[in-house]
Amino acid sequence: MEWHHALNLLLPEELLSFAGLILLLVAGWAGDRAARAITIASVLVLVVCGVLVAPELGGGGTGPQTAVFYGQYRADAFAAFAKLLIYAAAAACLIVAPAFFDRFKAMRAEFPLLILFSTLGMDLMVSATDLIALYIGLELQSLAGYVLASFQRTDDRSSEAGLKYFVLGALASGILLFGASLVYGFTGTTSFAGIHTALAGHLSMGATFGIVFVLAGLAFKISAVPFHMWTPDVYEGAPTPVTTFFASAPKIAALALTTRVALDAFGAQAAAWQQIVIFAALASIIVGALGAIGQSNIKRLLAYSSINNVGFILIGLACATAQGTSAMLVYMAIYVAMTIGGFVAVLMLRNADDEQVEAIADLAGLSRTRPLLAAALATVMFSLAGIPPLFGFWGKFVVFQAAVQAHLVALAAVGIAASVIGAFYYIKVVKIMYFDAPVDRVVGRSDGVHWALLGATALIMSPLGYLLTIWLHDLAGGAAASLFHFV
Description:
The protein has 487 residues and is an all-alpha fold. The protein contains 20 helices and 2 strands. The protein is globular.
């Protein structure tokens, strides 16, 4: 009965595993001519996975019955919330990828398979309640990511991005493993629940170093300062659909994992890691804002924007409260919509030769040549800046509110001030599109799938997005509450 219950909870992971293996065989037999069919099948698999995990979120799954395999895996509402965001982001990336790669005759059957296996790793990450399960999920996601970054083999930038991502990712994995070994050595267990119990008393110096190294390794995965150095280069060099994926799904998984580790495993010693998170949050907000100002490439600008947004999300984690965690989840949901919308708009920026337009200067006068595309991109920029009445403002508002209620007023004040600085480079893009003389570089036409995704995300970011606030807060509140029920 226990195994039956465990296998029922792991249905999404089982489906991803079996579907990935079956589609891998199809790819081996049919080759690249089956790439589009495999992509469609992969999207359907992700949709079914979303249907499977939705009841866990709607029912507010929590308690011992959500933990299986001797406490190494937990299928609670928190994991379900993160998984739904991951599935949505991964499906969006698969939908936009064929049109991009077909222009270079580079669409291969391996691409959707790598996305599926990476998603499987992310599923394990957000449900891991043991250091060993954590590392297995993290490496499965990372190994697929290294290949994805260098997927466009004929492009030197893509190869460079893959190499940088691999080298720095290996370094981060080593730091994480060293920290995990210290935590195990000074607590005697790899289980999050066991670590929580062991740390409830005196915190030794060795365990403190273990916590620092584990959080440092995870900071690389979420591209938080000072472990953000790979982000602009990888985002710029990787194919744009891959960049869309990196900026959304893996980031959500890593943030969810970091939250679970901090609150579940290290929750008994919140004071030991709060200062680290506060520093990472403030540094990410400031470096992300200042680093983006001088960027001339739209993908590099969005890379610094993602660093900036990670800082705001970490403010919620720094609160170490259920309300702060709920605010994090709300922000993450809005962030996924903004990120997908932003990169889909970038994918639609093409010149007369059907090549990607990435220079911000080439967007001059876009409002007069492509008014709908300019309006959608402006909506993304204003929403990322947190300018009301767009929905991006609500994400910042809830994390600042949680910080104030957790008596972190200074943190909220600095975050608000830095968000004003960050608004400069978003408004700069809008100014170029609407007030500069047209250069008429963006003339390529986009297909209906891109317009549908861009329209859907723009609708969410518009003031109509506020209609989702009650529903979103209820789901995020239930997911956050499940994280504070320790075994």
